[in-house]
Amino acid sequence: MSVDYKNTVFLPKTDFPMKGELPKLEPELLARWEKIDLFGRLRATAKGREKFILHDGPPYANGNLHIGHALNKILKDVITRSQQMLGKDADYVPGWDCHGLPIEWKIEEKYRDAGKDKDEIDIVTFREECRQFAAKWIGIQKEEFKRLGITGDWDHPYTTMTNHAESVICAELGKFLLDGSLYKGAKPVLWSVVEKTALAEAEVEYHDHTSITIWVKFPVVSASTPELDGAKVVIWTTTPWTMPGNRAVAYGAAFDYVVVEVESSDSDLAKVGEKLVLCADLAEQVAKDAKCSFKTLHTLKGSALAGTIAHHPLKFHEKAAGGYDFEVPLLAGGFVTTDTGTGFVHIAPGHGEDDWHLGKEHGIAIPDTVQPDGKYFPHVAIFAGMDVLNQGKNGKYYSPVAKPVIEAMSSVGNLLAHGKVEHSYPHSWRSKAPLIFRNTPQWFISMEATGLRAKALQAIADTRFVPDQGRNRIGSMVENRPDWCVSRQRAWGVPITVFVDKKTGQPLRDQAVMDRIVEAFKAEGSDAWFTSPPERFLGPDRDPADYDKVTDILDVWFDSGCTHAFVLEGEEWPRLSWPASLYLEGSDQHRGWFHSSVLESCGTRGRAPYDAVLTHGFVLDEDGRKMSKSLGNVVAPQEVVGSMGADILRLWVVGSDYSDDLRIGPEILKTQVDIYRRLRNTLRYLLGALDGFTEAERVDPKDMPELERWVLHRLSELDVQFRDACNGFQFHGLFTELHNFCAVDLSAFYFDIRKDALYCDAATSLRRRAARTVFDILLDTLAKWLAPFLCFTAEQAWLARHPSEDGSVHLELFPEIPAFWRDDALAAKWAQVREVRKVVTGALEIERREKRIGSSLQANPKVYVERTDQFPDNVDWAEVCITSGLELSFEDFPADAFRIPELPTIAVTARNAEGEKCQRCWKVLPEVGSAKHEGVCHRCSDAVEAG
């Protein structure tokens, strides 16, 4: 009669569920953290420690969060939490950008739909609507961020639209005003005719656009060399609308040019006998484009063109009325290339950066040709009032004036050809409309007047960049950038608080005036600029009639560039510190927030506002495509959180190499779920095996069996990698190691071996107590290590082991791993043990597959090795291989022995174990039946006896 020994076996027992049910669990833990004031307790616990301040780059308060927001904020949270648990005071204040065109555009839209003009609305009323719109979205985004498990000062975030923020932004601008850096100038800037404002580089994105191209002839009126007499210089441009603004033609001094004669023509535009001047390398292509053939008359160097004067192609148009009656000089330009075109570049100083500089260099007046709304000024001959850009019925933008320009050029015989080209072209990231370069009065901060460029380049050199190539990217941008245009012609933002002297045209630089403005903003916000009479700020000693008050607003990038000043140095968060330890955003912020912040800080403080900068890539779909609603490949973080849980998204972030673009989609998320399940099962198994564990069971590591000491060695190795990863802000390699540790080292090896001792050894056995001690260490370590990453799951596991009303794993520090746990000699020995085990396991797998055995415990294999050093001493091989016995042999390998290619010096012959099956541990042993208790082995009999 068999005896039921089930109740004598120590089976795992835990309330920690197998399924995470994260969508249900996570909100409960969020409520708990709020109840125990986790953020406040973190600040109190960390008081006095070394500070680590990750300064939040402000997202824009407009619309629900997308997957890029989730990536960014989770990465910030992981770093902040990990630095806190490394023993620092890692405070985090989230923030928002609130000013700017996207919000203003939304409010305008409401008025447009009602048939009203925004400019008819009281500006303070309009600004208040913008303010309320931003506040609404801040509230929505805040809850969405919190749901991702982001810890921070959510009760007191920063926004760029508070009175405090606006007063500091105003004061920061005042520093540039007072040191002479801020000036008013007219330069071509990227301009949106749709939004009627200048745009910063960071607000520009490039898309394919189809442009009309024209080849235009400029008749020579004064030749520098006889070969040019009677010739016409040919330019090529993709912007016909800029032709009214032409004032010069640029050539490459080192290039070879040819004077050609049109021999034959299949076009009405190329006249036989006409003499044209072209770059020698491009003449053949121009002939094809113009559908004609050329005969070369002369060859000359570009330098020989110096001093040549042409006239504008439209000078003699019947409607020109003297509007183009000026000289058009040929000028050497270092920016001219021979890649495409004709080797000549038409110069419109009001419509291009290179054009403007060349015009200024040669004293050419900069004409104003295009109004803010994209129409030509009334004084522009032939084309007055026409639009340079418009939206067609198909939704695509085109230049309606291109056709009139072509017709005008053709009518005077100065059009050689026209066509179309699709090319990358700047667009507004808001309206998605193409942009133009337009000369317009703007406020600039000089890059040279006070050495701002040199200071910024030095600051960049002194900053740590992760990855390192970010330094070169932002450095080249700063090195080559023009002066910083900080003005915008809009309503919603911090006003440019400057008065201009009507007589001199110079800005008023008066500290007392600036102080009065700053104090007003502190009390009332920046609306005070619009509601207050000038005398409030100018004071009693100045006559308001002598000054104009500027009505432009500041570029929002100047706003965000000042966040370090009103957050890190501000009176509202005295616990923070300046400079920030880290700025972290997407790689596009090299031309955005990183850029504006370093310029603002270097201009006012002489160094960067950050010690380190980390950049991450963008999020693409599983096929590497950009996400779009039309493709149906958008992954919304809210949907992932609602169906799978935030910890799955967090696992995706830390498991990805975010130095490059990341991919996400159903299959990738499914993989993350599988990885999560393995990690969770590891925690669950540890908790179950620790049921009833007490300190009385604990075993000193020096008294533990080798297998336990090997596990502690692995923890010591991982600890080094873990801390390096946290300090290096690179986690994907670490998570591969952690996953392998849990899945391979623990589940498939250590747990597999120790299952027998845990279940069947007597409660007092050293082996079982040592294993449980190590399990306790593993659970403590893994819960703490996982806390910054899987913040909800780690908390759940921690509380399952340490029940508490107000405890939290997030209040803990990472464990200090004793140095003596590291044992490289032991690790080398157990690497050999695992090699032998691998071959044995492979042999027994075949036996199971062929149904010759049911489990490995029914086997007693014979293992052959070539050398004794391959079979380490003092190892219980049956225990390690989970068999009922194992014989070692140094005999020749039998021909039919099992081997694996990578370990050719080890072979295994499978044999069945002899004896009876123990009814308690299931080992097959000859001793079963001879013990005190019926049907069990001696070990199990003693365990039953001990109770």
UniProtKB/TrEMBL annotation:
Principal place of residence: cytoplasm
EC category: ligase
Cofactor: Zn(2+)
Binding locations of L-isoleucyl-5'-AMP: 585
Binding of Zn(2+), residues: 918, 921, 937, 940
UniProt domain Zinc finger FPG/IleRS-type: residue ranges: 915-942
Keywords, in A-Z order: Aminoacyl-tRNA synthetase, ATP-binding, Cytoplasm, Ligase, Metal-binding, Nucleotide-binding, Protein biosynthesis, Zinc
Catalytic activity: tRNA(Ile) + L-isoleucine + ATP = L-isoleucyl-tRNA(Ile) + AMP + diphosphate
PROSITE patterns, A to Z: AA_TRNA_LIGASE_I
Swiss-Prot/TrEMBL GO biological process terms: isoleucyl-tRNA aminoacylation
Sequence motif 'KMSKS' region, residues: 626-630
Chain ranges of the Methionyl/Valyl/Leucyl/Isoleucyl-tRNA synthetase anticodon-binding domain: 708-859
Subcellular localization(s) per the UniProt record: Cytoplasm
Residue ranges constituting the Aminoacyl-tRNA synthetase class Ia domain according to the UniProt record: 29-664
Enzyme nomenclature, EC number: 6.1.1.5
Family from the record: Belongs to the class-I aminoacyl-tRNA synthetase family. IleS type 1 subfamily.
Subunit structure: Monomer.
Domain description: IleRS has two distinct active sites: one for aminoacylation and one for editing. The misactivated valine is translocated from the active site to the editing site, which sterically excludes the correctly activated isoleucine. The single editing site contains two valyl binding pockets, one specific for each substrate (Val-AMP or Val-tRNA(Ile)).
Designated name of the protein: Isoleucine--tRNA ligase
Species of provenance: Paramagnetospirillum magnetotacticum MS-1
